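Everyone, study these two lines:
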Amino acid sequence: MLKKILKVTLKVVGLLVLAVALAYAYISINVSSRMNKVYAVNAATLDLPKDKTILGNGKRLYTIKGCADCHGADLGGKVVFDDPAVGRITSANLTSGKGGLPANYEVKDWVRALRHGIGQDSKPLLVMPSHDIYKLSDNDMAAIIAYCRSQKPVDRDLPDIEIRPVGKVLTALDKIPMLSAEMIDHNYKAPAEMLPEISPAYGEYLAVACTGCHHENLKGGESPVPGGKSVPDITASGAVGKWSESQFVNTLRTGVRPNGVKLSSEMPWQMTKGYNDTEIKALYAYLKSKK
């Protein structure tokens, strides 16, 4: 009897191992195929400004759009995340220094990366949140690119991005925003300019940066970070709907809610505190209009 039980148990375990192996093989092939997909996009060429005021705005946009969080204040990149099961995520060195962008990296390549989430080889960039910024106006996009290209070279070699088994599974299940290129409307026509004003329309333009965490409808829910806390509803039906404009401004500037509770460490208020009054008030006007 014992031999029979052991035989059946080994058979079941063997079948389970085989099933897991086949499932992982399918996932690995699927993810690899998506990562190596070649995109044919028409990346526009933008005229870059040289005016110091506009370059200053490019620096500000680089900060408030979250670029500095990953690529660093010096644009030299860093190891953002390294987990033995999930993978190693590095941000690119955006300068012309050693380990940085190649000498033939043109404005069109910047646009391809920022607006389409695609590299010079026409394949998807990994963990590059282009879906949060691809709707930027041509003027704002050009200001960011001009600022980045004006910075001093930084010599910094970084290891390649490596997606490990758990990372591949999470990618296959769309639990992490690995491939921005899949989330972008590549036929989107960006406005030439967005005039800053305190209005829901301008607030909607700014709120694109919030959708990466708070979801497309800004109603919150599951965190885009595996194991992260649930993300709150920031529309009029959530807590923001009960805040005054001054309370909203203060929260995004200090990282403290009106009730005195600190925002989650996952909320980048260090970034939003760089918004000017017009931007924060416009964002508030838009969120209050969202039921």
Q: What stands out?
A: The chain has a mean pLDDT of 90. The longest helix spans residues 2-35. The chain is about 40% helix and 5% strand. Residues 52-183 form one domain.
